[in-house]
């Protein structure tokens, strides 16, 4: 079991770890690239390290730009509760929306249930391609437990995504 699955550790304690990971990745990548020249590394290692550095840096840049944009604003239009989960239905609250999601994609939801603003990834459970979005959120931790009763119709949230391509291509024969 990884430490990320321990639900007794609040998410706000994990957030700095994610930021430190980005910094450590950057430092280790620069170190590997500089050290490979001095150690007489093979061309294959230098090319692999270079590709790794470019892909990792571009991934971080894309994520930071998305984070800085803050996603699109949505309004909670319905909540459907069960014993262990809540389905949150959202409608665009402004001119900006996320791209139409496809089956299996996820998005980052930023909300402030109970006054604690956090961002978490959730699988989109709404029909593919629609303007309205929905997420099913199970109470598995401190923040997701607050979502169960903390989000109400009319609340504003931010959605960033969609991400992932877990559905097979429609062109597959």
Automatic annotation (TrEMBL):
Cofactor(s) named in the record: FAD
Taxonomic superkingdom: Bacteria
Alphabetically ordered keywords of this record: 2Fe-2S, FAD, Flavoprotein, Iron, Iron-sulfur, Membrane, Metal-binding, Oxidoreductase, Transmembrane, Transmembrane helix
SUPFAM superfamilies from the UniProt entry: Riboflavin synthase domain-like
Keyword Membrane: yes
Membrane spanning residue stretches: 17-35, 41-62
Keyword Ubl conjugation: no
A Gene Ontology molecular function term of the record: 2 iron, 2 sulfur cluster binding
Domain FAD-binding FR-type: 57-169
Listed InterPro entries: FAD-bd_8, FAD-bd_FR_type, MRET, Riboflavin_synthase-like_b-brl
N-terminal signal peptide: none
Pfam family, one: FAD_binding_8
Name this protein carries in UniProt: FAD-binding FR-type domain-containing protein
Source organism of the structure: Agromyces kandeliae
């Amino acid at each position: 079991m990884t430490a990320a699955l321990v639900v007794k550790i609040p998410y706000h304690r994990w957030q700095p770890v994610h930021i430190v990971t980005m910094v450590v990745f950057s430092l280790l990548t620069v170190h590997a690239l500089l050290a490979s020249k001095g150690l007489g590394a093979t061309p294959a290692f230098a090319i692999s390290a270079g590709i790794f550095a470019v892909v990792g840096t571009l991934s971080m840049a894309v994520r930071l730009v998305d984070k800085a944009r803050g996603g699109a604003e949505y309004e909670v239009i319905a909540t459907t509760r069960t014993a262990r989960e809540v389905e949150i239905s959202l409608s665009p609250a402004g001119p900006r929306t996320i791209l139409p999601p496809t089956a299996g994609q996820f998005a980052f939801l930023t909300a402030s249930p109970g006054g604690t603003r956090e961002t978490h990834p959730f699988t989109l459970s709404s029909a593919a391609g629609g303007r309205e979005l929905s997420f099913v959120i199970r109470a598995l931790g401190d923040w997701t437990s607050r979502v169960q009763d903390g989000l109400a119709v009319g609340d504003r949230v931010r959605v960033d995504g969609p991400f992932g391509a877990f559905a097979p291509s429609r062109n597959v024969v």
